[in-house]
Each structure stands twice: as structure tokens, then as C-alpha cells.
Amino acid sequence: MSDTSQVRPTLLYHLYRGASTLLAPFVWSKVAGKLRQHGVAEARVRERLGHATLPRPTGRLVWFHAASVGESLSVLTLIHRLGEAAPDLEFLITSGTPTSADLIAKRLPPRTRHQFPPLDTGAAVSRFLDHWRPDLGIFVESELWPQMLVQARAAEVPLVLLNARLSPKSVANWTKRHATAQFLLDQFTLMLTQNAKTAVNLRAMGADPARLKEGSNLKALSDPLPVDQDTLAQVKEAIGARPVWVASSTHEGEEETVLAAHMALLAQHPDLLLLLAPRHPNRGDQLEAMIAEAGLTSIRRSRDALPRTSTQVYLADTLGEVGIWYTLCPLVFLGGSLRDIGGHNPFEVMQAGGAVLTGPGAYNFAESFAELIGIGAAKEVTSAETLATAVRTWLDEPHALDTARDRARGFLARQSDQMDQTVTALVELLPPRTGEPDDAG
What we know:
Helix 10 (196-205) links the parallel strand 6 and strand 7 (212-214). A 7-stranded parallel β-sheet has the order 3-2-1-4-5-6-7, sandwiched between helices. The protein is of the alpha/beta class. It has helices spanning 11-37, 42-45, 69-74, 76-85, 98-107, 122-132, 146-154, 168-176, 178-185, 196-205, 229-239, 255-266, 284-293, 322-328, 347-351, 366-375, 384-396, 398-429; strands at residues 61-65, 90-94, 112-115, 136-140, 159-164, 190-193, 212-214, 244-250, 273-278, 298-300, 313-315, 331-334, 355-358, 378-380. It has 2 domains: 7-23 and 39-215, 3-Deoxy-D-manno-octulosonic-acid transferase, N-terminal domain (Rossmann fold); 229-412, 3-Layer(aba) Sandwich (Rossmann fold), CATH 3.40.50.2000. It is elongated. The longest helix is centred in the C-terminal third of the chain and has 32 residues, at 398-429. The two termini are 21 Å apart. Pathway: Bacterial outer membrane biogenesis; LPS core biosynthesis. It catalyses: lipid IVA (E. coli) + CMP-3-deoxy-beta-D-manno-octulosonate = alpha-Kdo-(2->6)-lipid IVA (E. coli) + CMP + H(+). Its main location: membrane. Involved in lipopolysaccharide (LPS) biosynthesis. Catalyzes the transfer of 3-deoxy-D-manno-octulosonate (Kdo) residue(s) from CMP-Kdo to lipid IV(A), the tetraacyldisaccharide-1,4'-bisphosphate precursor of lipid A. Keywords: Cell membrane, Glycosyltransferase, Lipopolysaccharide biosynthesis, Membrane, Transferase.
């Protein structure tokens, strides 16, 4: 493994440092304003300047830095596993959004605390590092803040890029700035990618191949969505033996396609129920009118109603109940994908035992869907006709749906095995516990 000193800072990096100093007051004003609007306490707002609001715990500290909600929540399972492997470890999560802070606070694993990250300025980062003195720094997905990386590495903190994922646009931009990309990637002791393609991209950007390893997809191992068992039982009883399929996280412009597919399916399955769970439940009135205009009958979950025998569409216009619908039915179309929106998390469906249908616009999960479709755990649809065909196939051929669900379970099992390898690799980067010989373990 090469010494980080072999790759020198570039002119672009020095320009970035200078610009970040000049722009710091403006950036601080904008960032602090957003946090205050969300009701964040002033002391916590100042965490963005590196002023900690919690003491550093004694012992070895692992620092996770994540971008936002999805990345923050994705590390919780890994923290649990690391805590089991090394019971003395303490953990710090930094993330920049108030929403992520709120959600993490409700799900903090043992010995874990949250702080907002320092702005990427020399003074704020120094203040943060001087207080927390992490023994290992783990950057999740694509959060590459230059001064944070360089100063942490200069402080002899081993750094890991975890669950590395880069969009084609990011790869193209960084490849044009190859020397700077190489310098930043050289700060990492280890880079664990979601898949082989990302490893190829990182090598093209200048990453040292000796430091690259394929790891697990953390989002595939997040805790399953919550399920209220009483509600699940009530809805199950109301549906009875009727066949059902789910269209979840749909967006404006997609429900027309979903309803057209459902109408086509009703010709062969007249008792079929569509459970429609829009991404934004506040569109309930609009969707209720759209369903009626299509000539279909519906009942809304937001009015505490349960589907009747005559109900053709159960409009699940509520928040926090998606886990119930995935547990209820293993045949799920995931929205945000028939239009150029980016798609939604397929692993939440798979963790509930389901198989996934997706449109071609799920670019936020493009690499995952390519693998899932390749192994038969998911299918891609492009229109009302292809959606109806895919749903009909899984309704008429239960063994085909069971096969897809088995492939999904197999995928998750492989991710769990890779997670064990990730935990081992991370523990090996930590300094020994106080009193341990350097060659322990």
C-alpha cells in the first residue's frame, strides 16, 4: 500500500482551501439559517463550526460521516455488528440534515452519539478533530469533503470510503480532474465499493487498486420497516382470499399507468385489489378523483377505512405504514421509476420477503437493479401493458413469484456474508485496545 505522501496536493486543492476560507461566513450563514428554521438548538447549530456539544467518550472511537437520511440510517446495522465484534468501541455519526439527526436520534445503537459535521473549512475541521480524536473515520457513499479528509489523514486517522457509489456524472467530472481526484482518494486507507463497476470507476479516477475491495450494500441490510401487527391483521381479514398487488411510492404522472394496468388485470382477475401507496400521501384527494374518473372504486386508508368486497383500489394515503403493505403482499411495483425520478429503495421490499417491479427511471439504484434483474429477483416494466403482463405472470404462476422471492433472499444473504467481511476489515484498521500488544488479534 502506497504512502499517502507520494501523491501531492494539487493547485485545485489549494484553490479550494483558499476559497473555502473566503466563503466561510456566507456558507455558515446559509447552513445555520436552515438548521434554525428547523428548530435546531443554537448550541447544536454551532456544531457546524466544530464546537462539540457532547464529551468525547473514553476508549476507541469510530466516526461515521454520512450525507443525509438514507446514508445515515444505512450504517446503523454495521454499528450494531461492530459493537458486537468489539464491545469496547464507541461510535460517532455526523450528518448534515436536521431530518437525519431526528431519525438517528430515535434509532441510536448502544454507545453511539450524533453531531452535525463541521463545515469544510480549516478552522472548523481542526476544532472538530481536536475534540473527537477519532481512531477510525468512515465516509459513507460519496461524501468527499477535501479538508475533512486531508486533515483527518494528517492527524493519522485511518480513513475508509464505505459503500462507495458514484454517479456517471460524478465519475466524468472527477476523471477530468484526475490529479486532484487521485490526491483525495489517496487519503483513504481502504475503499469498499458496492459493486465491481464502482471499483472500475474509482480506479479510473486514480484510486490505488491495492486499497479497493468489494463490500456489501449497506442499504440492503438496514432494519426492516416497522409493521403494526394489529393493522396488518385487520387489513388481512378485510381482504380475505382476494388476490392483491401493491404499487408503492408512486409519483405524479405514474398513477395513470398503474391504474390502466390494474383495469387490464381486472378483465382476468375481477376480484383483484390494488393497494396504491403514493410517495406523497397529501395527494390523496387528487388520487381519489383520478381513481373515480378511471371508473374504479376506492377506499382511503387515511379515513381509517378497510377495503370492502367491492373495493378495487385501496388508497393507502398515510405515512409510516409502507412496511405493513410490503408484509401483506410480496408483489410490489416501486414508483419513482416510470418517470425520470430516480426510483426508490428495493431492499425494503425484499426485507419483507417480496419481489420488485421497477420502471427504467430508477437511476439512484441503477447498479442494484441491474444485479437484481440479472438474478431474477426483480423485473423492469416500461408501460401499462408491460406492468400488467408482469403482475399477471406472478399472479398466475405462483412458483415464478416464489422463485423471484428466493433470489431476493439469496441476494440479501450474500450481502450479510459480505457485511461480516467488512466488519473484520474495519476492526483490523483500529489501534489495539489500551494494554493490548500491537500484534494482537
